[in-house]
Design brief:
- Pfam families: PAAT-like (PF14958).
- InterPro entries: PAAT-like.
- Among the domains are: 143 residues, Sandwich (Jelly Rolls), CATH 2.60.120.260; 44 residues.
- Helix content is 32%, strand content 30%.
- The protein has three helices and twelve strands, in the order E-E-E-E-E-E-E-E-E-E-E-E-H-H-H.
- Strands 2, 3, 4, 6, 9, 10 and 12 form a seven-stranded mixed beta sheet that branches.
- Helix 2 runs antiparallel to helix 3.
- The longest helix is centred in the last third of the chain and has 62 residues.
């Protein structure tokens, strides 16, 4: 099967708005191109569909990469979308025959042994693709092994399948929690403190209900009915306070569990970085 570089990329692909695409790489381009030139995008389908590699590659999408300062590390391409869309599938045509894919926060997704397509002028062409699940706004491609006979590697084209844009609150971050803020928040709403304003508000609310109920009671049975209502309101008040306390206790447990999970992930990443640094220094 031959690769035709003169063909046009599939018309159903959308031109990528580079304002929403952030690309970083530990290698550099050496053929007067930009990283965004190699990308095309397409709307995600409900089911995984194998991509026709000929729809990915054209002369405009081919970029040549080389290591920076004789770096022996494999080429790693990091992709990030900032417009609310998410990546559901990635298809790559390159000189790499083994590729590793990562998703949000560097989480490992899969390793792919690419399909051989063609070879011309001592340059090999391989095709690989994978689904990203759950869909993510970030992904990385590691070109682990290549057939290149020199330090230069070609990426002939990359296609991203994107979901519809989802608007999320700009000021909300699910990845950053300050335990002190959470602790202060919960302490303000602790219903075990007799002097707490919130407890007083609840009691005041029920006292208003009590007063309204008293007015509707017949005078003959006034004292008896009022005593009964007093007992019921007091009981209800205690039940509500207990219920709310339980709810906030559950919230606190969930938040602390989330914090612990995030700390574990952070520690794992730090351990990985330290291991890589130790490996580099040992090699040197």
């Amino acid at each position: 099967m031959e690769l035709n570089l003169n063909q046009k990329v599939d018309d159903s692909s959308l031109k990528l708005d580079t304002n929403f695409l952030q690309i970083s790489c530990n290698w550099q381009i050496n053929n007067n191109k930009q990283f965004c030139d190699t990308f095309t995008v397409k709307s995600s389908s409900l089911e995984f569909k194998k991509t026709n590699f000929e729809d990915i590659v054209s002369l405009n999408t081919c970029i040549s990469l080389q290591p920076i300062d004789s770096n022996n590390e494999p080429c790693m391409l990091d992709i990030k979308l900032t417009n609310g869309q998410k990546i559901s599938q990635i298809a790559v045509v390159s000189e790499a025959y083994v590729l590793e894919f990562f998703k949000q926060f560097g989480e490992y997704e899969t390793t792919k042994f690419a399909e051989f397509i063609d070879e011309f002028e001592d340059n090999s062409v391989y095709f690989a693709e994978t689904a990203i699940f759950p869909h993510a706004t970030e992904a990385s491609i590691k070109f682990t092994k290549t057939k290149s006979k020199n330090s230069i590697m070609w990426i002939y084209g990359i296609k991203l399948y994107l979901t519809e844009s989802i608007n999320e609150p700009k000021n909300f971050s699910t990845e950053i929690f300050n335990p002190e803020i959470i602790k202060n928040f919960l302490s303000k709403f602790s219903f075990n403190n007799e002097g707490n304003n919130t407890t007083n508000d609840v009691q005041s609310c029920y006292m208003n209900i009590l007063n309204s109920s008293k007015k509707s009671v017949h005078k003959d049975n006034g004292k008896e009915m009022i005593q009964s209502i007093d007992k019921n309101i007091t009981s209800n008040n205690i039940d509500i306070i207990t219920y709310i306390d339980k709810k906030f206790e559950d919230i606190e447990k969930k938040l602390m569990k989330r914090i612990d999970e995030m700390e574990q992930k952070t520690n794992q990443k730090l351990e990985t970085i330290l291991k890589q640094l130790e490996t580099q220094y040992s090699v040197k």
